[in-house]
């Protein structure tokens, strides 16, 4: 059992039915936790986490133009993987259980159509949004990122292969191995610790690259955009990555 007194940096991937957390300590990979909700993740790490990066949007549009600058900038640098960045539903739409209802709210509030891909994450987005509004301490530690942006920043160039393919797995493993020679055993250990849970290899890679990004390492922790705005609730509208140089032209 992991020592919960160890200070950690954490990457969290939302897996639909669960939340996969990969925690790094000062010595590298520490442990994996699979939680039922983001609130459970926060309860586990609130005393120990220095930084938590999650692969869901933080900072939502209430009404008007639904496009967030951070998403636009991410698409500009992701090349073939640009389509992995969806425009999130407006805040009210994330609370709707059905795509049809969410779509009506999103269109009424923003004047734009809601993609099914964006709606798929609505439950996780809503849970995260509620936690950050209700628990200021969580909002000070949990930040938003995107695994494909993290891989792009570590690689120094856009990735060519989709994440869910064998070639995509190999490409991402090469990026991690170049960043850290212990990446391969780290991914193996993380995957082993998810036994018994509905977690895919792609989920593990996402959580691992988020954890590498959260933990101190080569390059500075940066954001798209460099000076993030905040939403109506005061939450930053940003995507965090780690890199030697800024990916933004701003």
Notable characteristics:
single chain, 250 residues, alpha/beta, five-stranded mixed β-sheet, 7 strands
What does the radius of gyration come to? Answer: 17 Å
The percent of residues in helical segments reads 40-55%
Estimated share of beta-strand residues: 15-25%
Number of strands: 7
Question: Outline, from the CA principal axes?
Answer: globular
Secondary-structure class? alpha/beta
Q: Quick check: average pLDDT?
A: 95
- The ordered H/E elements are EEEHEHHHHHHEHHHHEE
N- to C-terminal distance: 45 Å
Tally of separate helices: 11
Largest sheet: 5 strands, mixed
What would you note in describing this structure?
With about 250 residues, the protein is of the alpha/beta class. It has eleven helices and seven strands. The protein has helices spanning about 40-45, 70-80, 90-95, 100-110, 115-120, 120-135, 135-140, 145-155, 165-180, 185-190, 200-215; strands spanning about 10-15, 20-25, 30-35, 50-55, 140-145, 220-225, 240-245. The chain has a five-stranded mixed beta sheet with strand order 3-2-1-4-5, sandwiched between helices. Strands 6-7 form a two-stranded antiparallel sheet. Strand 2 and strand 3 (about 30-35) form a beta hairpin. Helix 8 (about 145-155) packs across helix 11, helix 9 packs parallel to helix 11 (about 200-215) and helix 10 (about 185-190) packs across helix 11. The protein is globular, with a radius of gyration of 17 Å. The mean pLDDT is about 95.
